């Protein structure tokens, strides 16, 4: 039996309110040492594993969004945000202004690598914290991070380097997408020109370098001049990121007035046409630029990005086109709920295999950011299509 949009909205609110936030407040926050735990087993126990800065940032966002949706009490959400922000800044900061990748549960550094993906999320988390407590300390910490990137990580043709554990340098669109997301988040809560400049730099890089003019899809991996890295003439792209960029471009257009409508909808429609399976109703993880699947597994998060893009972009198309966007949102919502059929309520599987089976024994805290973001957008926009 398929759910109506109104039923999906009610199911989402109920699941978040009754199952997710009670569990993740009780088990997902380290009440002794501080910070958010990395994952919880399907028997409900926090796992004693290293903690990433990215998870601290994402959980700050998740608790804030839960409060905005009325699914998490204000005092619980604000307490989680306040302690998570303090933990992230105190435990993960480097003198350079960067944030390290991970620490051990006892608070000692695990990986000191200041990878770009981590910097993007640290900046994002600080914007969320600033939105409810706009103090100079948080803003100055965010500005120190941007100054570090511009001082030490700048690429000649625009953008920033990615670093691996051994100091190897690579050039990827994905961390830039999240850096763009953090610029947008700051633009939503603060008028400082620095965030606008960062956003402009990153949207320019996306539209002029990341999107291939021939295929119109947005690639993942590049050389130092932002040329697509190819294998037998083809490069890799991810439908989930197509949706995510389309959604972020919508937020950016609302803030700046820059007309990105054609680009946004093109990314969405290409992902819908080639990046989904009409029979299995899933978004594929990876594609080749000739529009053929590279992998036919499906992680949970591309389904979330499909929901976000479909409902927000669906509000601005003609009445004849609305059905396509509505179908994409509802189909992805139906698929997403399959990921929640875990042994304990309030948790999720990470990946659906190409044979449509799940195999896991724990839920990652990092996933909640994608899920609540998708549910928030569906709740706010689905009935407007």
UniProtKB/TrEMBL annotation:
<comment type="similarity">
    <text>Belongs to the N-acylglucosamine 2-epimerase family.</text>
</comment>
<dbReference type="InterPro" id="IPR010819">
    <property type="entry name" value="AGE/CE"/>
</dbReference>
<protein>
    <submittedName>
        <fullName>AGE family epimerase/isomerase</fullName>
    </submittedName>
</protein>
<dbReference type="InterPro" id="IPR012341">
    <property type="entry name" value="6hp_glycosidase-like_sf"/>
</dbReference>
<dbReference type="Pfam" id="PF07221">
    <property type="entry name" value="GlcNAc_2-epim"/>
</dbReference>
<dbReference type="InterPro" id="IPR008928">
    <property type="entry name" value="6-hairpin_glycosidase_sf"/>
</dbReference>
<keyword id="KW-0413">Isomerase</keyword>
